[in-house]
Design goal:
The C terminus is likely disordered. It contains twelve helices and 19 strands. The two termini are 49 Å apart. It is of the alpha/beta class. 26% of the residues lie in helices and 24% in strands. It has three domains: 102 residues, Cobalt-precorrin-4 Transmethylase, domain 1 (3-Layer(aba) Sandwich), CATH 3.40.1010; 100 residues, 2-Layer Sandwich (Methyltransferase, Cobalt-precorrin-4 Transmethylase, Domain 2); 185 residues, 3-Layer(aba) Sandwich (Rossmann fold), CATH 3.40.50. The protein is globular. Keywords: Cobalamin biosynthesis, Methyltransferase, S-adenosyl-L-methionine, Transferase.
């Protein structure tokens, strides 16, 4: 039986440094042969007591992890992490790289725990948004009147950037408290309104407590107003969109292909359903593709991946989807076949159309594969002279099906 490699010890450390470490964390660092960490963290360890070789993480960090671990294979490795290594920390990257069974994790109170203790907020009722390595627009998804947020800062400039975003999004009256160097003897708090943020950049090790107050009301469910999207008319309208997302049934961690993205509304609202949802929007028109990216950023999901190119050719290198929505281009040769073939067993395919030609195609697929074929009709009340009448929108034919789990069932 091959000899098992030594465990990698991940030690959480706070701004107070060595003095705040528990005995088992100190012992692990004293025993290590090599310690990996950020330069700021490595400088917190006393010399000559901690005699291990010190290796600073390069930037970008994640791609470098496998190589650094391989370079020190067979040695007793310790890794320094800010606070709790498994809370938005290096612990997750290490677990995904070497497997959780290789890790010995010694956590320290996170900055979020420290912050809630300082300002008296219940931790379980406070939403946390990380802007470390993430676009600023990620914060937009968490904006709701009266809510409290803790924002993990990327650097010293993040508080001012957050204040500017809140002001631009209608939350200028929000109160911001910046908590710097939590747990350190020289920790500091800065206070101010978003629309009148008076403080220059301070310490890069900071966290922002946000009390949103009054602001625009958003929605947590699919079916955002059509005016929420920048569009040239290629937009799945609100009521049909809500019905479509209900059938697509987003679930955490699942990947959606939004084929013929238009304005990106289906992919955007799929991503808004849960922070772990993933989506790719495929759009052949470059102008529309850029518009999709802007809509995603505006609505708080800048992680949407946009692929510019015609389907089905543009689908060839994409990861296997859990769900596929086809909102345009149904009659393109091979499109439905390509999407159905790519879909994982048990995945969902939903296709919408307003044309008779595409409806005939969906009817044929319904005959071959079953599922559900429905017609969605929406009418809006409009003035008719001095009275009110109904104006019918173009009806939408929708076919939806779940791909069978066995090859026999999947045969046409």
């Amino acid at each position: 039986m091959p000899e098992q490699p030594p465990p990698i010890t991940v030690v959480g450390i706070g701004a107070e440094g060595w003095s705040g470490l528990a005995p088992d964390s100190r012992a692990a660092l004293l025993d290590a042969e090599v310690i990996l960490g950020a330069p700021r963290q490595l400088d917190l360890l006393p010399r000559p007591e901690v005699a291990a070789e010190r290796v600073a993480w390069p930037s970008p960090l994640r791609p470098a992890v496998p190589g650094l671990l391989a370079a020190h294979a067979g040695r007793r490795i310790a890794v320094l992490a800010s606070g709790d290594p498994m809370f938005y920390g290096i612990g997750r990257t290490l677990a995904e790289t070497v497997g959780p069974e290789r890790l010995r994790v010694l956590p320290h109170p996170s900055s979020v725990s420290h912050a809630c203790a300082r300002i008296g907020w219940p931790l379980e009722a406070t939403e946390v948004v990380s802007l470390v390595g993430r676009p600023l627009d990620t914060l937009a998804l968490a904006l709701h009147p009266g809510r409290r947020l803790l924002v993990l800062s990327a650097d010293a400039t993040t508080p001012a950037a957050v204040a500017a975003l809140l002001t631009a999004r209608g939350y200028g009256t929000a109160r911001l408290r910046v908590l710097e160097k939590l747990g350190h003897a020289h920790e500091r708090q800065l206070d101010g309104r978003a629309d009148d943020w008076p403080h220059p950049p301070g310490d890069p090790l900071n966290l922002i407590a946000v009390e949103l107050g009054d602001g625009p009301r958003g929605s947590l469910v699919p079916g955002l107003p059509d005016a929420s999207y920048e569009s040239d008319g290629q937009l799945t309208k609100r009521h049909v969109r809500a019905a479509t997302l209900a059938v697509l049934a987003p679930s955490p961690g699942e990947l959606l292909w939004d084929v013929g993205g238009g304005s990106g509304s289906i992919a955007v609202e799929w991503l808004r359903a849960h922070r772990d949802c993933q989506a790719v929007s495929i759009e052949r028109d470059p102008v529309r593709a850029e518009r999709i990216a802007r809509n995603a950023a505006t609505l708080g999901v800048p992680r949407l991946r946009v692929v510019t190119g015609p389907a089905p050719a543009a689908l060839a290198e994409l990861p296997t989807p859990d769900a596929v929505f086809i909102g345009g281009g149904l009659t393109a040769p091979g499109l439905l076949d390509s999407c159905w073939s790519a879909l994982r067993p048990g995945g969902r395919l939903v296709a919408n159309t307003v044309t008779l030609e595409s409806e005939a195609l969906l009817t044929e697929w319904y005959r071959r594969h079953g599922g559900e074929l429905v017609k969605l009709a929406v009418a809006h009340a409009v003035p008719v002279g001095g009275f009110t009448g109904w104006r019918q929108a173009m009806p939408v034919t929708q076919w939806s099906a779940v791909k069978p789990n066995t090859p026999q069932e999947n045969a046409s």
